[in-house]
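Before relying on records like the one below, remember that each one covers exactly one chain. Contacts with other chains, cofactors or solvent are not represented anywhere in the record.
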Amino acid sequence: MARQRLREARRWARAGAVLRDLQERCAAPVERLRQVADAMVAEMRAGLASNDSEGDSGSSVLLKMLVTYVDSLPSGDEKGLFYALDLGGTNFRVLRIQFGGKEQRIVKQESKTFIASEGEGFYLPEGMQRQLGFTFSFPVKQNSVASGTLIKWTKGFAIDEMVGKDVVAELNKAIKRQGVDMEVTVLVNDTVGTLAAGRYVDNDTVAAVILGTGTNAAYIEHMDSIPKWCGPPPESGNMVINMEWGNFRSTHLPLTEFDVALDAESLNPDEQIYEKLISGMYMGEIVRRVLLKMAQDASLFSDNVPLELEVPYILRTYHVLMMHQDTSPDLRTVGNKLKEVFRKTPVSKQGNW
């Protein structure tokens, strides 16, 4: 029994060493955060000045700072029937919404289709074509508010034949093939859509951040701060900028051995570093790699490493979220979830995992 206790003590000492090392490498004190912020500001300025950043997937400019051609945002006075289609890293969904102006705001909305079933609560003026807003959550170089060519895929997508094509033109062709009387009239990134939704309910909204399958941000910029803009400025004097900040990187970012290995084995190595550090697509995989290290170095799952633990992306971010929310004294949810995913219960220490 004494030998067994000594063995467990050594095992947990090794596990603790792995976690302490990870904690040190992930540390983000205020001074480091300031350095990261300063580095991002420098890249923002470079992206706002460089035309190369908008059309070249191999550009040395990290933040593309894409001009969206959206120079005004909702006021809350909008009226009429509108459609939206959202294509992102996780969802493909459609929406129909009836706006009733300042007093009625959103009269009615549905999130499934529908074109042939417009009924009570939805009114399209006679002779008017249906208008579709297209939210496309990937880097696009826009030439107008209703056209844009795909620069590259992110979030694990890899459809090579679409790169360099106008996504709006391709969608309009598909709509016509289906015999639907509808046309895409605006193309926006999901960050721009989120910014517009925020402005609709709060006129003080000036920026939007996406923390989902991927990560990105958009904000309102003054035209005199966009050197790469050609032509007369819009009347508003402002422009919404899609940062595409998932591609940000800096020597000040706390990259660990797990982040480096994940990037090297990804579909797009050496790209989207910031996104791989913090977004939902990758968080579960980073935790799996940490657990694998603990299983190998500290026999977390006894002497045999579960085969499932070596399968990339078998641990999803929602698994991690469920475990993170476990406040039970014996961490029962953590133990059950690890057993469910890896088919093996981790070694316990005094009744806890």
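The chain has a mean pLDDT of 87.
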